[in-house]
Specification:
Layout: H1 9-29, H2 38-56, H3 63-84, H4 90-114, H5 116-120, H6 125-141, H7 147-161
Helix pairs in contact: 1-4, 1-6, 1-7, 2-3, 2-6, 3-4, 6-7
Length: 162
């Protein structure tokens, strides 16, 4: 049996995939017409890289590394494509890339939902803290851009402390 109750590491990872990633994508929707300047884009890429590296730091034999890491890596790569579009077609291309990012997040969510027992044995508080640390750093460095993500990070911290 596994424990996914509020405040557990499994709950934290579930909040990451069901709330934080969703809100990050919601923030990107609002930016699809203009994208992000290179300096801001770099901060997003660094935050996503931090999440990918954190999950990648677990054992190579773990389920988390075998299945979740790959999806997060592809999500990160799709973000780079999302912001690289230029010209008159850029908003439409960003919209299409965002759909791909949503599909990747949905695929990740399905894997996590159906493998809660396995996942619960591989997570630890350090991993959750580092994931949310990367996201919190991004939301604090660009609060005018990532207001939805900021709310998700704050919800996580408030609920975790209850």
């Amino acid at each position: 049996m596994f424990d996914a109750s509020q405040g557990t590491v499994l709950w934290g990872f579930n909040k990451f995939r069901s709330d934080a990633l969703v809100e990050l994508l919601n923030d990107l929707v609002e930016l699809e017409k203009v994208g992000l300047q290179d300096q801001k884009c770099t901060k997003v890429r660094m935050a996503l890289r931090g999440v990918v590296d954190t999950v990648g730091s677990v054992s190579d034999q773990s389920w988390l590394k075998s299945f979740v890491w790959r999806d997060l890596k592809e999500f990160e790569q799709l973000y780079a494509i999302w912001n690289s579009h230029a010209g008159d077609e850029a908003p439409a291309n960003r919209r299409d890339t965002l759909r791909q990012m949503r599909r990747r997040r949905n695929r990740l969510a399905r894997k996590v939902r159906t493998n809660q027992l396995v996942l619960s044995s591989e997570l630890d508080s350090r991993l959750i803290s580092e994931i949310y640390g990367s996201l919190e750093e991004l939301s604090k460095s660009l609060p005018e851009v990532f207001d939805h993500l900021s709310l998700a990070v704050n919800r996580f911290h408030k609920l975790k402390e209850r």
